[in-house]
Amino acid sequence: MSDATAKPAAPLDEVMLAMDVVDTLRHRQDLVTRELDGAAREKQLIERLRNIYHQQGIEVPDHILREGVSALAESRFTYEPPAPGFGTTLARLYVSRRKWGRPVLAALAALAILGVGYFGVWQPYQRGQVEQARVELAETLPAQMDALYQTIYEETKVQQAVVLADGLLARGKALAAENDRAGAEDAIERLTALRDQLRQQYSLRVVNREGVQSGFWTFPEVNTDATNYYIVVEALDPDGHALSLPILNEESGETETVSMWGVRVPETVYSAVAADKQDDGIIQGNLVGRKSDGFLDVEYLMPVMGGAVTRW
């Protein structure tokens, strides 16, 4: 467009006056409703506007008043919000970032910490636990079984211990191969107990002290016409300390760990022990048997009937 045809820009004070006219019209909706929306002519509205400004001591030229009325009709100097859309939403989010920024950042930080903890710590730990369990079942526990078996084989003086160890070793390794950790550990415990039993050394002696019975007799429930005779014994290690041992109670069928128990003996043995104690209150022949290193069972030095009780 040439300079000759271009519309000259309005002075700033006239623009400000026109904006004020529009603002006045917005605040005086009664004028707009009656004049612009009604049937009155534009000059009547201009006249009213002139009177309003005159009352305020402001003289506004007619062309400014007409410009203001036209601007209101054309919605100039009026803010129209942008249409909804993706860009508008992003802009509003950016403007309101002070409200949601910190909570969102805190949530993202928490998620990051959880992610690092889960993927960087928990999962590697779980994988390590699984791998450790696999190695223990495949290598560690079988190696312990082999070591115990070898010890039993070298220290035993009876073939029975080797036979028992063979069975426990085979069963334990089979359970380990099936990922049965509890079963494999049980086999190790049994092998350990077998080794410890071989290593035990003690003497089995008749209890001979005040307040404790040295023997007793009972009528078995399965045959009340018979009489069972027992002598009360205890196991003393080489240092004279009493040991607690697992003893099978023939009356209840339960195994209990006790420090004293009754060994069933023939009536002749029971009577001999009783006579020995009645002689001078001391049982000279109190040695019932010995358990030596490398053996599983007690070597009895007097006849026994092969049964025991833990309560009487």
Give a brief outline of the structure.
With 312 residues, the chain is of the alpha+beta class.
Task: Describe the model.
With 312 residues, the protein is an alpha+beta fold. The chain folds into three domains: 62 residues; 72 residues; 108 residues, no CATH class. The chain contains nine helices and ten strands. α1 crosses α4. The chain is rod-shaped. The relative contact order is 0.07. The N terminus is likely disordered.
Residue fraction in strands: 5-15%
Number of self-contained structural domains: 3
Helix content: 40-55%
Calculate the mean pLDDT score and round it.
Answer: 83
Helices, by number, come to: 9
Shape: rod-shaped
Number of strands: 10
Over all CA atoms, what is the radius of gyration? Answer: 54 Å
Question: Which terms would index this structure?
Answer:
55% helix, 312 residues, alpha+beta
Write the layout of secondary structure elements.
Blueprint: H1 12-27, H2 29-36, H3 42-55, H4 62-73, H5 86-95, H6 97-155, H7 159-177, H8 181-199, E1 202-206, E2 215-218, E3 228-236, E4 242-243, E5 245-248, E6 255-258, E7 261-265, H9 267-280, E8 287-291, E9 299-300, E10 308-309
Antiparallel strand pairs: 1-3, 1-8, 2-3, 3-4, 3-7, 5-6, 7-10, 8-9
Helix pairs in contact: 1-4, 2-3, 3-4, 6-7, 6-8, 7-8
